[in-house]
Amino acid sequence: MSTTTAAPSRQTTTPRRVGPVALGLRQGRLEIRQFLRSRESVVFTMAFPVIMILIFASIFEGEIGGGVGYTQYFITGMIATGLMTVGFQSLAIQIPIERDRGVLKRLRGTPMPKWVYFAGKVVMVAVIGVAEIALLLLVAVLLFDLQLPDTAGKWFTFGWVSLLGITACTLCGIAFSSLARSGRGASATATPVALVLQFISGVFFVFTQLPSWMQQIAAIFPLKWMCQGLRSVFLPASFGAQEPGGSYELGMVAIMLAAWCVIGLVLCLFTFRWTTRRDG
């Protein structure tokens, strides 16, 4: 009498699918780690605005008028600059370097959806941007007696101006990254643009004291409107009368920043390149 034994059944396990949110957050963590490992990126992106506050606030200790101290005015420009640096300048430099090294070309050939790469950049910019703002406020409050916003409305304005501003800068940074011919020349392409915008947008100087032609050019770009929106948060309401439009014009701030979000997105869709020009 023969006996038969059943062969053990093999259980096939299907890999658990990772949701889109988890994919974006995972890529974001990777981008943050890479950012923190680059000493140059950390120093230039996060330390530069803090160094500027320490220098300028120590030199100019008086008032600019209307009972407003220079530090109170200057912090608005440095927060806007910090957001522009992490959103526009860092991406306009990082992406060409990754493109030059073939990182983007390899990612394009993997099953990973393309949007995950950009989601990782957005997460990185958001986290570093919040850390940048917190660091700037901490330094200004502890060392230079910065007066923080005293109403919920001002904090709300602070939030939407920062959100729209960093979104516009991020999209413009991704689009601008296609202009650099190589990773080595990315810094030389993006840095002069950022510096010029800072000087003409009222970051280092009182905006209304700049030549009118500079004010008109600055009004085209988002940094000027970021600074103006933040001035409504940190400066008295009466100081709005000294703005070029006679008020802080928060409605126009929202319109211009939202418009640059749309412009930046369109430019990203039509200009972004995964490979270098020599690769075709």
Shape: globular
Uncertain runs are 1-7
Q: Structural class of the secondary structure composition?
A: mainly alpha
Write down the domain tally: 1
GO biological process, one term: response to antibiotic
Subcellular location: Cell membrane; Membrane
Transmembrane segments: 42-60, 72-95, 115-143, 155-176, 188-207, 250-272
Keywords: Antibiotic resistance, Cell membrane, Membrane, Transmembrane, Transmembrane helix, Transport
Short summary:
Keywords: Antibiotic resistance, Cell membrane, Membrane, Transmembrane, Transmembrane helix, Transport. With 280 residues, the protein is mostly helical.
Describe this structure in words.
The protein is mainly α and 280 residues long. The protein has helices at 20-37, 39-59, 70-100, 103-108, 114-144, 152-176, 186-200, 212-218, 222-234, 250-271; strands at residues 63-65, 68-69. The chain has a two-stranded antiparallel ribbon. The relative contact order is 0.13.
Summarize the topology:
Blueprint: H1 20-37, H2 39-59, E1 63-65, E2 68-69, H3 70-100, H4 103-108, H5 114-144, H6 152-176, H7 186-200, H8 212-218, H9 222-234, H10 250-271
Highlighted features:
mainly alpha, two-stranded antiparallel ribbon, 2 strands, 68% helix, 2% strand, disordered N terminus, ABC2_TM_bact-type, ABC-type transporter activity, cell membrane, transmembrane helix, membrane
